[in-house]
Amino acid sequence: MKIQIFQTHDELSDFVAGEILDTVRQKPEAMLTLATGDTPLLTYKKLSQLSINGDADWSRVKFAALDEWVGVPPENPGSCKSFLNENIFNRIPLQQQNIHLFDVRSADLEKECAKMDHFIRNHGPVDLMLVGIGVSGHIGFNEPGVSADLYSHVIDLESTTKSVGQKYFPSDIVLSQGITLGLKHILQAKKVIVIANGHHKAGIIKASLKGEITNNVPATLLRRHPGALFALDSEAATLLDS
Ligand code: PGA
């Protein structure tokens, strides 16, 4: 596991966008998992600007979604699907047949999990996984206490995830469960970048990098991953020396 600290969110986002583009340049059939959330928004803006220059071939890149809110219609602007459409798929020339998302309209979510696991087994492992980190230490919807032995699964959301998650939605919404890639997928990805910016993430970044390695803070498990990188801005890194 490595740590890289950037002065600003802008510099951090330039770096992460460059890492995604390099992965595709080096391996045009790469599999990517790119998180939703506020943190990587600027990265995706920069990635779309870089991809306009056209020196990467996206036509064979595979995309496996990280997670989705269960019970939220995909057309809701706060769904992960809406986020991915707006910030990635509408801007970067991925092929529809190479994209695999969790379909939460399915009556059988266990089957949705099996379909995602099959997609990753067939085309993976994931070459580059970009994930955010919640203030609880969750990665995707791998909530505190989750087993590290799980692949895709449905999980009850922790109260912080339910309350913080309201920020993505136009009006108050009941959030109770999520469907997510498991820690097993995350730990099997070749490279995992955990991106964090802002003072509000400083406490959980310190706990993730300096605290006990435990599934009660799922992000701590990434310290055992040789291909993990915590990419931080200086605000998120403030408490690392204290
Ligand atoms: P954020 O979400 O990027 O909106 O802070 C991170 C997360 O909860 O995984």
Explain this structure.
The chain has seven helices and ten strands. It is of the alpha/beta class and 242 residues long. Helix 1 (9-26) crosses helix 2. The radius of gyration is 17 Å and the shape is globular. The protein starts with a strand and ends in a 9-residue tail after the last strand. It binds 2-phosphoglycolic acid. Residues 37-39, 132-134 line the site of 2-phosphoglycolic acid.
Describe what is shown at a glance.
This protein is of the alpha/beta class.
Apparent shape: globular
Note the beta-strand portion: 15-25%
| Overall average residue pLDDT | 97
Count of helical stretches: 7
Radius of gyration: 17 Å
**Cofactors, ions, other ligands:** 2-phosphoglycolic acid
Q: Sketch the topology as an H/E string, one letter per element.
A: EHEHEEHEHEEHEHEHE
Notable features of this structure?
10 strands; binds 2-phosphoglycolic acid; 3-stranded antiparallel β-sheet; about 240 residues; about 30% helix; 7-stranded parallel β-sheet; alpha/beta
Q: Could you give the topology of this structure?
A:
Elements: E1 2-6, H1 9-26, E2 31-34, H2 41-52, E3 62-64, E4 67-70, H3 80-89, E5 99-100, H4 109-123, E6 128-131, E7 153-156, H5 159-164, E8 177-180, H6 183-188, E9 191-196, H7 202-210, E10 228-233
Parallel strand pairs: 1-10, 2-3, 2-6, 3-5, 6-9, 9-10
Antiparallel strand pairs: 4-8, 7-8
Helix pairs in contact: 1-2
The structure holds 2-phosphoglycolic acid.
